[in-house]
Amino acid sequence: MLIGLVGKPNAGKSTFFKACTLAKVEIANYPFTTIKANEGVGFVRVKCPEKEFKELSEKGKVCQPQHGFCIKGERFVPIKLIDVAGLVPEAHKGKGRGNEFLNDLREADLLIHVLDASGRTDAQGNATENYPVEEDVKFLINEIDMWIYGILERNWQSLVRKSKSSKLSTALAEQLSGLKIKEDYIKDIMKKLELSERGDAWKDAHILEFAREIRKISKPIIIAANKADRKEARNNIEKLKKEFPETLIIPCSAESELALREASKEKLVDYIPGNKNFEISGELNEQQKHALEIIKKDVLEVYGSTGIQRVLNEAVFNFLKYIVVFPVENEHHFTDKQGRILPDAYLLPQGSNALDLAYAIHTDIGNSFVSAIDVKTGKKIGKDSLLEDGDVIKILTSSRK
Ligand SMILES: Nc1nc2c(ncn2[C@@H]2O[C@H](COP(=O)(O)OP(=O)(O)OP(=O)(O)O)[C@@H](O)[C@H]2O)c(=O)[nH]1
Ligand SMILES: [Mg+2]
Fold first, then answer.
1. Is 15 in the pocket of ligand 1 (CB under 6 A)?
2. What is the pTM assigned to this prediction?
3. How far is the CA of 339 from the centre of ligand 1 (A)?
4. Assigned CATH class of 322-400
5. Which of 76, 195, 231, 273 is an S-S bond match for 190, by CB 3.0 to 4.6 Å?
6. Could you give the CA distance from residue 108 to residue 104 in angstroms, rounded to a whole number?
């Protein structure tokens, strides 16, 4: 699972990234602070099954995640995040830092558009006031479309040549395999747009239309309406929601989330990412107290959270429709071979079955799959059994029978 952060310069992409990963990245109040992409690990938040098993809770036992972490039954499961340079209108014509760096996002399953909802930065990322934030939504989609268009347009002659010996849809699928696009989708789009299998019959406008459809499938975009801590953001967010009713728009304050996570790391506050409040647990100076009060009043009490965790969870579970499954070796103790309790959490697409989980763990486990046990019910399940969100599963393999 890879999620890309995109948006114009100075919108708060790196702040969002740092709030999620606590990686050391540069954040500054001027455009194009980020040049080289930052890659790191963020987390989605799910209920840990540790609470559901009496055998664990009665003995005061808790999970031992091998990746990610768990706080009071809230399990944080890793996902990859990538933060890139700022994108400006006409980046595809070389403006700003151009759009070459978007190639780092080829593999991304989804893009989070980090948008400055306060309207205090212009299209280039310079300070202003009352910037019409809806422009950001429009330009960004267009630049992503133009990036995909560019990939096709640059290679069009060779695609046309290949289409003479095989099909154009096959050649396109090969060309776009890096974007994780399947040939079936390509065929569907060509049918929908009534595009010819003969590449030399396509005009530029056809390529662009096709690129737009590819973007919708391969790079869905949700909006993190950032800097929501600033008063001007409230109206702007309402406006955005009205103008783009089909788009998922989540108010957030990356700066507040970063402050809370850093304070929590320093043991100054008790805070679980995604919560609507925090508790002070350390000695704070006046300035820190004041900053936290503002976060409480202007962000948490208004929006119910800083929004950052919500963006990631919505992206993975509601938008991309993944589920989380916990494989174990020992169905009585909920452990792996080393005795670690609920050590792993796998993110799988909805509709995955027990065999898919086995293969996700290891090819050998998939190949030697015999059956599985739904640990919560104790029932045996077959390879085709669909998994549900939160399932705890033991896989039985032929070598271990
Ligand atoms: N008020 C407020 N300011 C924020 C928030 N998030 C980021 N900022 C500020 O916005 C400025 C830009 O933040 P960055 O994270 O560097 O922005 P970026 O989108 O990565 O910018 P580039 O790397 O230049 O493209 C910094 O001064 C941040 O402190 C927020 O939620 N609220
Ligand atoms: Mg940056």
1. yes
2. 0.95
3. 44
4. alpha beta
5. 195
6. 8
